Model the fold of this input.
Amino acid sequence: MDSLTISDYEFRQYQKLLYDIAGIHLSPAKKALVCGRLARRLGQHGLTSYGDYFRLLTDKRETGELQHALDLLTTNETYFFREPGHFDFLRNNILASHRPTQTFRVWSAACSSGEEPYSIAMVLADRLGSGPWEVLGSDISRRVLEKARLGHYPIERAKHIPREHLTRYCLKGIGSQEGTFLIDNRLKSRMRFMQINLNESLPKLGEFDAIFLRNVLIYFDQTVKRRVVARLIQTLKPGGHFIIGHAETLNGVDETLEPVAPTIYRKP
Done:
């Protein structure tokens, strides 16, 4: 299947499908990515063109296959304590002024396989201990959410976790699980994972003290960026913080949040 190529017309079909569903814009440079990630699915269905697979995806009876394709096309790189300055700010600035009588809630709004929300949870556990706090992780991909709920990772994924957190909140695999580690149940019990499409109306989630929307906006055009950010801000408490990736900006996207540090904003 690797020798199959996708025509410009077929690629435009996938571009429109992904944009309509998830708001994600695939640049022409992503043609190879589409081919690489979907080629095996064509083979499994005995199909000989990307056009045939597209017709399968748009068959209303094949919602499961459509979800599978979305999982393949929307999964992005993540790792524990990525962009560590954000976690330092959470620990030293945001949590320093938190009143422990209130439940501190954080939303990791594109959590992939769980590394970001578990990193957040380690910081909260370290600073708030047994006090009231919780973390929501959401993603459009069911496949990565299943991995996130398990909290079970290859040991090489632990290299960015501070040693004190690794000792306190992670369990090293032994026997048949050697070479892996598992997030401790004390953290997992504070976590909730949900499938959420940021390009659609949000379910009732309550309000959050902080929202991490990192390395997601780069996949949206300006129209979708404004719509998604406005939607998420409605769930942010007054005084809450909104954190985006270092390659991103809210310039021209939102005028209501106040910048307090590079890529960190506060709701008045």
Notes: The CA atoms of residues 39 and 200 lie 28 Å apart.
